Amino acid sequence: MKPNRFKLPSRKRSSSMMMALFGSYIAVLLLAIVIGSILYWKAKTVVEHTVDNTNAAMLEQLREVADGRLKEIEQLEQQIAFHPRLGWLFNHEGSFSDQDAYSIIEFTNDLQRFKNLSRLIHDFYIYDINNRLIIGPNVKSTPEIVFDHVYRFEGKTSADWVTELKKPALRFYEPAASVRMDNGSTKPFIVYRQSLPFGDSSTVKGSLIVMIDEGQFRSLFDKLASVNRGEIYILDQQNRVISSTADTRSGISLFYKNMANDYGKLEEIMDGQSQIVTYTTSAVNGWKYVYVVPQAVFLDQVYAVKRWAILLLSLCAFGGGAASLYLAYRNYIPVRDVVRIIRKWSGSEQETGIGEFELIRSTIESARLTESQLRGMLAQQAPILRVNFLTRLIRGYVQPAELEPESLAFVGISFISSSFAVILIDAGDISGFAQGGGEREWPFVGFILSNIAGELVGEHHLGFPVELDRGRVAVLINLRTERLSMAKAEMQEMAVKLTALLESRFRIKLSVGISGVAKDPEGIGEAFRDALKQLDERIVLARRTETDRNTEASTEESYFYYPLEVEQQLVNLVKAGEADKVDKLLDALYDDNFTTRSISPELGRYLLVTATATMLRIVQSYPDLKSTLAERIASIERAAVSESTHAAFAELKQSYRTICLNLKERRSDTNELLQNGIKQYIEANFGENMLSVNWIADHFNLTPQYISAVYKKSSGQSLTDYVAEVRIREAKKLLTHQSMTIAQVAAKVGYANDIGFIRFFKKYEGITPGAYRSSLQTDK
């Protein structure tokens, strides 16, 4: 098929396209200029009339938002005050037992949920006066640690805090102060204190301390302050500045008593400049929210709108024209380049009146049709891929990686359980279906067998029929777990129905072989071999006449059982290095021939020669194995000549095992090196908090799935369990040192806090680290 020939558009047509793009941009630009001009005149009028009232309205909105956020603090206070474990903590006296410690841990876990009640809350603590204990979200500590190390207030020690916390406090706020954190950084906080228990001011058993992030609180009004280049102050009834957007909070001439009304506006002289002071009062705590803006800013805002509007409209007119020309040309360049590529691809150099967009559209339409054809071809190949996969799966040639859900989905297969069985159906005589049994009729026979067998299996289980050879169909049955106990009887019933149906309706005589149940996908190959053996027996039995079965001579088998499918399965297992499966296959072959069939010694020698020939074909690809097996092959021949069949088969099995182990060792050297490397890496880095399967995989430049599978196959243990084993082992060693705390032990074995470590230790050992340490002391 010749490609479509396209021609480039003419220069006139190209120029008109460029001008069309430019005209579109100019039209959009003019529309924006007109709308902007109208908006300017409207905005100028609105600003002039509302600038005096804007600050008051925004400040009132700020007050409502801030009060709402502060009520979230009160919600936290109520949640904690009525928590059932709070009373237990305050009433507890004496040292804490392990059970008490665990209850405290659960209390801290509960407190963690309250931390998200408000974004203003950086942290909060409950101080227990009786036990000198501080409890917080996932934290159990002392005042000395919290106020001398974690949060260090300038000029205020933990002793000062303990003194204050013993005093009654009713929703008391400390002005914002810079606090040095344990990581060396400095951060401003507003401290909120409330005596506990709530509502009982006569007896103070503890206090709630909330560290309010002043940065978050100030962010509520930073934007308002920056809009008009003003400053916002929040004053309490003691005229203290709780928070402010100003760099300095000292020396201001604002007084709470001068703002007697709930809201209003004042004119004050501050720092030699006339200032407009707008204020409103909080109904929650009586604070004054004060907005201070220079008086000149009010008029400046009006004139600034005018200046900026004129400037922007001018820039929009002149700069927008140039930008429109540039954008039109820049957007035309890709169109021009695409047209050139299409012309080069089509081999046409002639110009034509067709437009660029029409040319591109025609080319895309042609490409879309080609893509549809490719997709159709792929869809046609999908059944072939499915048949190929099922054939390999039933014969036992599929690798474990091909049984992953993603790989199965690609061929349109999904399983409902891990139990499988195989049914083999052989149409030996189709003369009743088609006279002469020509080759043209065999595909119809296979189609009929596959569809009817699939429908019969689908009544109770999931069936996947596939035609293996001419007139031979295999059905892979995925057994439903709830009907597993009835599976054997149901398969027998299905075989009877299928045989009767095909013989009565289509006059096709069948032989059916049914396997046992395989407990996992890896046993499908063994199930196929079992079904094949059953099928062969039924075929041979069907060929005997009633007279032959009654004669004595007919009782002796005239052939040995070693079909091509079994031979190919044996070859694949040897190449995979599956020595145990090879032993089972050879044992089954021995039982089928010498125990079940009782073949003659002569046939036994033929079987040994054939199996030995299979082994020799395998080692053709590995010349170094020939010399290793030479003596064993001679031993097999000597044993066969002396009619010691059992000894000859034992030699044959040992020879196959030698080949398997040799091939497996060649592949396992790399996996063993990787396993040792992983173990060494874990031993060296078990104390890292970030140690995980993904981290280990990144270190070795491998995928997490691959490294987990290799380690599990090599060691028989999952990678996660080995990491836990190493950490438990090292933790037990560290717990013998009485000087180390549980938190220190947790940090040594890769845990950020003792809570997670206690859960981890208890999961694997059944007891907490503290109980384990106590048991060590008892043993001593």
State the gist of this model.
The chain is α+β, with helices and mostly antiparallel strands. It is built from 24 helices and 19 strands. Mean pLDDT is 79; it is low at 1-15 and 549-556.
Counted beta strands: 19
How many helix segments? Answer: 24
Please mark out the parts with pLDDT under 50 across 5 or more consecutive residues, or reply none. 1-15, 549-556
Rg measurement, Å: 44 Å
Percent of residues in helices comes to 55-70%
For the record, give the distance between the C-alpha atoms at the N and C termini, rounded to a whole number. 92 Å
Name the average pLDDT.
79
Q: The biggest beta sheet, please? A: 8 strands, antiparallel
List the quaternary state of the chains: single chain
